[in-house]
Write a structure and sequence with these properties.
This protein has 247 residues and is an alpha/beta fold. It contains 7 helices and 12 strands. The chain has helices at residues 76-81, 119-125, 129-133, 152-162, 185-190, 193-198, 215-227; strands at residues 4-14, 19-25, 36-43, 46-53, 63-68, 87-91, 108-114, 136-143, 166-172, 181-182, 207-213, 241-245. The strands form 2 sheets. A 6-stranded antiparallel sheet has the order 4-3-6-1-2-5. A 6-stranded parallel sheet has the order 10-9-8-7-11-12, with helices on both faces. The two termini are 19 Å apart. The model has no long low-confidence stretch (mean pLDDT 96).
Amino acid sequence: MADWIPAQVIANRHWNNNLFSLSLAANIEPFKAGQFTKLGLEIDGQMVQRAYSFVNPPQQPTIDIYATRVQDGLLSPRLHQLAEGDTVLISARANGFFTLDEVPQGDHLWLLATGTAIGPYLSILQQGDVWHRFRKVVLVHAVRFAADLSYQAEITQLKQQYGDQLIVQPFVSREPSTLCLTGRIPQALEDGQLERHVGLTLDPVQSQIMLCGNPEMVKETKSVLEDRGFAKNLRRKPGQITMEHYW
């Protein structure tokens, strides 16, 4: 059972009609970049809760949560309506093992995400460890429409700070968009389009891959990678594919 404490809403940023980010203040316990927490509200006498990854790095005092409003959802429409000064419940303790210390050593780190699953990667990229461990970091973010590409200012700042060490490649699946690849991540891996576009080769010897997002994307991408000699990363048997299903 979650150890609930109150969190005060500092801001609620609406990126578009459905995507939003909550900035919260709460006295939570220390967490690792890549972990998730739980948010909850009492609705009609029952506690309704969902898991959300931290977008902020552990050293940041405010908590940032990136979410999408599900039209017929119980919780997300209420979170979408929260305003500065409102209160939501948050779990004091973080959970999850989708963290950098679970990823074996390599030269290149590929971070593949769909939708709001870019959140844990932004947390990881805003702490120092990843830049010391990997020579190149490739951030791949797949969305339906260009308007769904949130956090562009933060990503641009990371690019300015780390230069060519960070490669960013967005995908847009339902409309043409400048500087974006069209289609889906698994197919772009299967036909080599992604590697050609970013100028880097996926290789089981030097590449580590983190997958986070739509379970179908995670499953299909894992299958494509396994056909190329990559293996799921397990504590008892280290590999190259570290996964998180985002719902």
